[in-house]
Structures are given as structure tokens and as C-alpha cells.
Amino acid sequence: MLNINFKCPECNSFIEDEVDNATFDWTNDNTGDGIESNYSTVTCTECDEDYNIEVIAMPGQKDVKVTDHPEVKVRFIDDTFDFEDFGPEDLPFDAYEVYQQSVADAKSLHTNSYKLGIPGQPLLKVLYLQYVVILEAYLSDRLIKIITNDDKKLLALVGSTEALRSSTHTLIDIAKDPNFVKRTAKKYLERVSFHDLLKVSGFYEAVLDVYIFADERPEKPKKNKKKNEGQSELTAEEQKMQQIIQIRHHIVHRNGRDNDGNFIPLKLEEVEEVAKLVNEMVERIEKNYRPYIEQLSEELDKDIPF
Q1: Where does the source fall among the domains of life (predicted)?
Q2: Fewer C-beta within 10 Å: the chain N or C terminus?
């Protein structure tokens, strides 16, 4: 359940209630297929007016709306991922903090499961998948947050992404909504499969000027490569991450078997390598993100007239 509160549009009374929650499904290949919506009805205790509430779980964020009154701001406390030792007010919301907490949980699962004697292969599959899901969540959260808060970065993303750059919309569409471009770009990213790391790499090169696969760029950076391009065109780091994503696909959709039906045995060392490569990619992005966000904060401070 999700705790929500808002002012009644009819009588201005304070409404506080619980509604059905929604959870984004990160196991879907298509990010758009993972979006979940749930609907509930709440009643104002003062005027007995009923309101339909929609909870939408998307990658990197959750929205709650009064469907018949979109202008009403709904506040909510989301404890979907509550942890035993943390109250809701202590839960992290920044992409990097969420990443760190998720990794800590995965490591705890690893340690506690071995103590309980859970069989090796089932546990290794869960951990392997979890580290990839943690990476996808971070990549989505960080990028969406940047482009929704910084118009310059939004423009950089649009200019470098063919699907956005060549999008055709009428002037009336844009005139009716000052945030039209931002909303369009955000919806596009919410539909993107963030395990398509080659495409995601192009986004991050445009927005944060970071090559996510290695500390040094290849001589000829290959942005937004097609999935069907030959592996020989990829760098060693890109090939390795592509192999990890492929195994992730086999775990989710084929119960750990390849396209020929052969079982893919996992070793603890392989899971540890995935965790290591995921961490290196995240830290590589954060290394560029930190000075960027500090500079942005300084610029915003200068704009404040007091």
C-alpha cells in the first residue's frame, strides 16, 4: 500500500489515505513493458466526494495522480523498498545512493543465503541478474534526473539521439505545453531498454561526456551501435558487457539456458566480476557527474537575487 495525502478540490479539506501501490518491473526487455499502473478510490471525510487515484511506477520515479483533477498535487511516502534498519525518511532517493544501498542488499543476500545453505546455482543466477538490474536502474535514474533538471543537457540528448532529433510535432503541440520537449524526451527514455548498453553509452557521451565502458575512449568511439553489428567492431570492454547482458537475457527468459538449450553454469567468480564491472561503470559516470552537479548548483546560486 502507498500512503498519500492531498487537499480536496471540493472543500479544501486534507485527505490522507492508503491506495494500491505499483512497482516497476525491471526484468522486462522493453522498459515500457515494465511500467505498472494501479487505480484506487478514496473519499473525502468532510464532503463525501470520491476521487480516483492512479499510481504509476516508471523507471527512476513514481507518480500519483487524481485522475479527474490533474492539477492537484498528491504527496506520498513510498516505502516499496523499505529496509529493516531504515525508516521511510531515511531511504535514499539519489541514483547513486540507491545504487549503493542495492549493492549492499545484494551482498547481504549473498552472505545470508550461503549461511542458510541455499543451493549454489539458483543463488548465483539471482545475484547475477540482480547486479545487472541494479546497473540498469542506476543508468535510467541518473540520466532521467539530469535531463529533467537541466535544459542544456536535455538539448544535448535530443541533438544526439536520432529518434528525438527527427521527431515530428506540430507547433500547436509545443505551444500548448512549455515542457513538451522535456516530457517527450523523458517518455522516450522510459521506453528505452537500459540493458542496451551500446545505445545508453551514446546517451551518456552526449550528456556527461563520459565513455561508460572504460576509463579511456577507443580511438574511434562507436556511439549507438546496432545490435546486429559484428562483435569484431566492439572493444574488449564492450564485448564483455554485451556477454553479461546476453547471459542476463538467458537467465530471465530461458532459465539459464542458451538459444540451443544448453545450460549455462555460473561460478561465484563470474558473479563477482559482474559486480566489479558494474561498479566500475557506475563510478566512471559519477566521476563526471559530481563536478557537473557542483557547477550546476553554483550557477543556480548565482541566479538567486538575494
Answers
A1: Bacteria
A2: C
Do 217 and 285 belong to one domain?
yes
pTM (2 decimals)? 0.67
Query: Which domain covers residue 202, as residue numbers?
Result: 93-303
Kindly write down the DSSP assignment for every residue of the chain, as one continuous string.
-EEEEEE-TTT--EEEEEE------TT-SSGGGG-EEEEEEEE-TTT--EEEEEEEEETTEEEEEETT-TTS--EEE--TT--TT--GGG---SHHHHHHHHHHHHHHHHHHHHHHT--HHHHHHHHHHHHHHHHHHHHHHHHHHHHHH-HHHHHHHHHH-HHHHT----HHHHHH-TTHHHHHHHHHHHHS-TT-HHHHHHHHHHHH---TT-SS--SS--TT--TTS-GGGS-HHHHHHHHHHHHHHHHHHHTTB-TTS-B----HHHHHHHHHHHHHHHHHHHHHHHHHHHHHHHHHHHHS--
Q: Are residues 53 and 190 in the same domain?
A: no
Looking at the fold, whether 180 and 243 belong to one and the same domain comes out as yes
User: pLDDT tens, 212-269?
Assistant: 999 988 876 555 555 444 445 899 999 999 999 999 999 998 888 988 899 999 998 9
Are both 73 and 192 inside the same structural domain? no
Residue 83 lies in a domain: no
